[in-house]
Amino acid sequence: MSPISRRGLLAGAAATALTAATAKAATAAPARTPTTTNPVWAAPFATADGFAGTNLLGQNGTTGGIGGPVVTVRDTEAFLDYCDRNEPYIIQVDGIMRFSSKHALRSNKTVIGLPGAEISGGGLDMYRRQNVIIRNLRFTGADDDAISVQQSSHHIWIDHCDLSGGQDGLIDIVRGADLITVSWCHFHDHSKTALLGHSDSNSGPDTGKLRTTFHHNYFDRTAQRHPRVRFGEPIHVYNNYFRDNALYGVASTENAGVLVEHNYFENVPFPIYSGYDESGPGRVVERNNVYVNSGAPETLGSVVEPRTYYSYTPDNAANLRTTVPAGVGVGRI
């Protein structure tokens, strides 16, 4: 079964809204250079699953820019302009967007890459935002975080992206951010992959938040943080392929609650930690994982079950070594 077929397509009102959005031209004033509409790539559109698909915090799942115009951007100025607008948009990225630092991505946006689309040198920052989808984009060489989700942002879906070679984190989810799904992404040629909870002193805003699902991602020779978690619960890590991670796989610290299940660990000396560096231990439960030429996992205590929030059916972990690399990254949707 292909990766896209594992998730249902939008139905009912959501599908109707997408059809209407893709059928009309962009009505907003164009950015500094012409921006055209190319509706073909935007549909069909799978729904977010995991925590991003939950109906919590006043948000009915994560639908991104559904209902807004579909625009195609071909230069950096136009891209950053549409990202910073308040209205809903489906932003199709055509080409390589080169910029530095992190730039704002506002609420109710879908950013989806056309073939060959890339963000080079900079990153996207969600600060008190909600209902954002980022798909089919390559992120390379960010001088800060490639994707930053912070300050109580929620309902963010990062799917089928390729992330590598940045100066800091590839994905940071911090400062009370919540209800995130990271799925079918390829992480490679980097050290600090995904951080949840930015410091040991931020227990107030982060405790019980940072609820994130990581599924069907390929952590490919990245060194650490797959993810590294403080305070958040539950963090759900399932059906991922961990390969040649030199420092460690998953780290639960500062009383976080992390469930690690149905994953494939290959050549990972420390697949699961409870506590790391100067951070105190976190609770972590592991089950039904495959360990090949890898160390023993550390576990501690109990964790709130993700099934409290959403339903899911894990794939057989033994097959992930084949299915995950075949399905992750750009060009698959």
From TrEMBL:
Boundaries of every Pectate lyase domain copy: 66-271
SMART domains: Amb_all, PbH1
Keyword Isomerase (UniProt): no
Family matches, as Gene3D superfamilies: Single-stranded right-handed beta-helix, Pectin lyase-like (2.160.20.10)
Pfam families: Pectate_lyase_4
Signal peptide: 1-25
MF terms (GO), sorted A to Z: lyase activity
Protein name: Polysaccharide lyase family 1 protein
Organism of derivation: Saccharothrix xinjiangensis
